[in-house]
Amino acid sequence: MIFELIAIVGASVVNLDGGAPIENAVIIVDGEKVTAVGRADTTPVPPEASRIDATGTWLIPGLVNVHVHLGLVLPGLLEAELANESDAALALRMAKNARDTLRAGVTTIRLPGDSRHVDIALARAIERGQADGPRIVSAGEMVDITGGHGADETTADGPYELVKAVRREVAAGASWIKIAISGGIATPVGDIAEALMTPEEIAAVIDAAHRFGAKVTAHSGSPRATRVAVEAGIDAIEHGYFLTREVLALMKDEGTWFVPTIVVSQPKTMPFFERIGSPAWYLDRVRSVGPRHFRALQMAVEEGVDIALGTDQFPFEPNDGTTATVREAEYYVEAGMSDLDALRAATTAPAKMLGMDNVIGAIEPGKFADLVAVTRDPSADISSLRDMVLVMKGGRIYLNELH
Ligand SMILES: [Zn+2]
Q: What domains, with CATH codes, occur in the chain?
């Protein structure tokens, strides 16, 4: 790849620690990395640099969305259409979704469960410059139990089979392991609030993964299952539809991350489910969890649980006049977070959760030049993420609407 030296000038760089922004800033990008950030009067622009005039905009690090399935298929018409999708067709569909993700300002994603390890091949292709997309951290295929949420032909039961399944995913290239410890919206059977995996099974997965340096996250709507997993040392909990204040306080004490994916259960997402032909039972299940899910998010904010943004929809999926990623961040503010904290949940917090805060999540010298420009200050109003005018990942521009 051939890179040029780039100077982004004139923008305000948002301070994600809550301090004053750097106004009239100069950001020097050399290759994939940022090499200098500062005020124009103290940060020289090398004469050979090509200038991007971003006057009047606000710069933030590229967004991070930690609950994405690039090959997502939900019950309904699309599922029937894709029933015999080949590996090659899946790879091309996922590559298209990766490109669209990047153009929506999301420069890093974590995939908690995609099919046939196509995601791992795609992640490597993006790293090599063979495909355009965000940085991808993958959990490979979800490790699932017979009859459980997401169960397919590779189910595993009991500690020994589950340990083997964990090792299978790590060997395929997964750095996270995803398990489903309760029922879910997309499971036609099984109580969402019920614990489906046994404590022995949950503990065996976490132990096996941690020995390989992989982190573990769980699909969970269940307070009971979540308590078992948190006590066994799980790293993150997804969805948390029916979580109680007691369990959320435990997560806070143990430093367990919470990935709310609140968009999937809220009324503004109903037009999406109708558009994709979701069956009536699915719509009923969405409606049945919405209010409790939102309450759980409010309590998580009140308890100060570490929250990282995830959508469980495509990051770019249209939702209420914006994307699922931006709408998710707006819900955090509606649930009681400050605008700045919601912005952190979409940038610095997930970077930390992924153990990547040394390379992403901030516009600083030495970090990847992953950044987004918006037309108003998003730390004062998160909805300004609706108006992105520039997206850069690793020093390359994927969206430029600056005039
Ligand atoms: Zn999911």
A: 5-62+361-400 (2.30.40.10), 63-353 (3.20.20.140)
